[in-house]
Amino acid sequence: MTMFKKILIANRGEIACRVVRTARRMGIKSVAVYSDADRDALHVRMADEAVAIGGARSAESYLRIDAIVEACKKTGAEAVHPGYGFLSEKAEFAAALEKAGVVFIGPPPAAIAAMGDKIASKKLAKKAGVTTVPGHLGVIPDAEAARKIAQEVGYPVMIKASAGGGGKGMRIARSDAEIAEGFRLAQNEARASFADERVFIEKYVEEPRHIEIQVLADAHGTVLHLGERECSIQRRHQKVIEEAPSPFLDAKTRAAMGAEAVALAAAVGYRSAGTVEFIVDARRNFYFLEMNTRLQVEHPVTECVTGLDLVEWMIRIAAGEKLPFGQKDIKHTGHAIEARVYAEDPARGFLPSIGRLVRYREPHGDGVRVDSGVYEGAEIGIHYDPMIAKTVGFGADRETASARLIEALDAFVIRGVTNNIGFLAALLERPRFAEGRLTTNFIAEEFPGGAVHLALPQGAAPTLRAVAAVVAHLTAESEASIGGQLAGHAPPLPTEWAVMLGESRALVRVEPIDDGYAVTEDGKRRVVLQDWRPGEPLFRGTVDGEPVIVQVDRDGAFQRLTYRGVTVPAKALSPRAADLLAAMPAKAKPDLSRALRSPMPGLLVSIAVKPGQGVKAGEELAVVEAMKMENVLRAERDATVGKLCANPGDSLAVDQVILEFA
Questions:
Q1: Could you give the strand order of the β-sheet that contains 620-626, starting from the edge strand earlier in sequence?
Q2: Residue 246: alpha-carbon gap to chain centroid
Q3: 316-319 contacts: CB < 8 A, separation 24 or more?
């Protein structure tokens, strides 16, 4: 079979852009599809052709098999790459394309169906000799049945959607009291996300690691694996940081997991790229979790350490080519770590943030890769996953990869929406991460109170005060040189500055030296070398020889500095002006405790209380759905409900009042 001349990408965002880039390199024309909300999206701009397929909601566009098949006929696309999510694991989609004479760039429909049903896949895996987690693989009819099964399996248990994926339709229950709510929420999310409310229960492995094996299979009998990815750092079962190889596996365990992954792929007649996910305990015992019959979000880390383009090989396999290499030819070089950058607010429980990217600048440099589907001026809306980009650091070893990723996050400029870069940096800075002591409980254990108060790394404040002083000095110098001023009336440049970084204050002296400045604080002299100019968003330089990247934003007469994802106000004044500012009364904060406000834009699914009803702290008040996830809003304190200000079914804006307390 000859190589395709034109392929259609049945997806959006960064993965659609990713496929376009590989297709272009291979000399293949690309066709994008888009919803009403994505008319100006980057993947539409990048592709050779673009076809509108419906409304903003996924069900009206990206989940419409008929519209995508029609787009193939209209454009003459010979094959379809599904990306991940949406229709990528729908056997009926692959079958519909096959019926229309269009090649599906992925596995056969039968393999998708077998692995897509989590209950059937576990039975098949067990038959193929793959180690599985103890549990109940039958469909559970109701919450009472779920309670009985959970008692038989033994708490804690995991309630999972049979058709699930991406962390949706999953709940952990540790007691009878938690099983009813967990069953209800898992079933609701499964219904909303997959139109299939079936759930099953399995034993929840304590101190688990999530490690997956990348497989690749052609239509000529070759099935091999490309090693593992460690995906243990998760939040609400959604991966946050991924890396290859795992810092935990030894050669024996790696080989055993790879062999089982290959055995499963062969048993199901797999073709294309796929991922077999395992849960691994502290003793390196591993159990089959599920198989994802598509390209994974985190595939770049495997590409970085193997040198293989997985999208290219998916296309070549779909075109009928035989893999020209075997298992012994697969070599791994170095280490790669990926961080998922999202438009979300860690301080508000990681709720999605929507808006326009008013400023957007991606990092670049040796050992840095960024996969994104946005641009400066693009809109982050409510209809789809709020991912902005995947940022990868890679190098000869894990320490180098981590350092490059941290530096890349420092240099990633995103304005207009709240993002999770500070949280990602805090994860990577944890000693436990550096030691490789990871489990799926990492975030819960390292941030037991959530990510509300992210702080600067220890010892960073003096460095930032030095940067703030130099920024203030250069800004004052620039303003003094503005033309049209009366001769002899330019204000003298101060040499002493009172620098207030957040709540702290220090007196520093700034003196020009060759190629930089000497900044002295409490008798400690620091040499700051840089090439920053007022108005630039990135301050790149060194402080006492140590590289530093700080983001600088003008905030009225002062600055906001962002370092390791943490933003702090920086005020540099003359000592006298600083004394006067300190004497100003603080502005009182408004009382927001009298109402329940929607913490995100979304759909009000339900209200659990009535006017006049007393509620206890922790009691459910309402459920808001956003990005297909149901978020339970609970009372923060004992109170009495006053009046309801919204109704189930209403679309809510962020901070919109749902109900008021008496």
A1: 629-634, 620-626, 602-607, 651-652
A2: 19
A3: 316/3, 317/216, 317/217, 317/218, 317/219, 317/271, 317/272, 317/273, 318/4, 318/79, 318/103, 318/104, 318/105, 318/106, 318/272, 319/1, 319/2, 319/3, 319/4, 319/79, 319/103
Q: Which two tokens stand for residue 24?
A: 């272009």
**pLDDT tens per residue across span 34-81:** 999 999 999 999 999 999 999 999 999 999 999 999 999 999 999 999
| Other beta carbons less than 10 A from residue 29's beta carbon | 19
The angle that helices 310-318 and 299-306 make with each other, rounded to 10 degrees, is 90
CA pair distance 75, 269, nearest whole angstrom = 31
Query: Which DSSP symbol is given to 612?
Result: T
Burial class (CB in 10 A: 0-12, 13-18, 19+), 492: exposed
Please tell me the distance from the alpha carbon of residue 478 to that of residue 39, in angstroms, as a whole number. Answer: 42
Please give the Cα distance from 343 to 372 (Å, whole number). 13
pTM: 0.84
Catalytic choice (14, 242, 243, 290): 290
Say how far apart CA 108 and CA 528 lie, in whole Å: 60
Helix 251-267 to helix 118-127 angle (10° resolution) is 110
Q: Is the dihedral of CA 28, 34, 39, 40 positive or negative?
A: negative
Q: How far is CA 45 from CA 41, 420, 496, in A?
A: 7, 27, 51
290 is catalytic: yes
Containing 231, the helix (H) or strand (E) segment is strand 223-235
- 84-120 confidence digits (pLDDT tens): 999 999 999 999 999 999 999 999 999 999 998 877 8
- Give, in order, the Cα–Cα distances in Å from 250 to each of 253, 255, 273, 389, 634: 6, 9, 24, 31, 44
In this structure, are residues 79 and 315 in contact, taking their beta carbons and an 8 Å threshold?
Answer: yes
CA angle 354, 240, 249 (to 5 degrees): 170
User: Which amino acid is located at 280 in the chain?
Assistant: V
Q: Long-range pairs for 549-555 at CB < 8 Å and ≥24 separation?
A: 549/407, 549/410, 549/411, 550/410, 550/464, 550/467, 551/410, 551/413, 552/471, 553/415
Question: Token pair of 545, please?
Answer: 């020889």
| Core vs surface per residue 102-131: b (16+ CB within 10 A) or e | bbbbbbbbebbbbbbbbbebbebbeeeebe
- Give helix 13-25 / helix 310-318 axis angle, nearest 10°: 70
Type of residue at 556: G
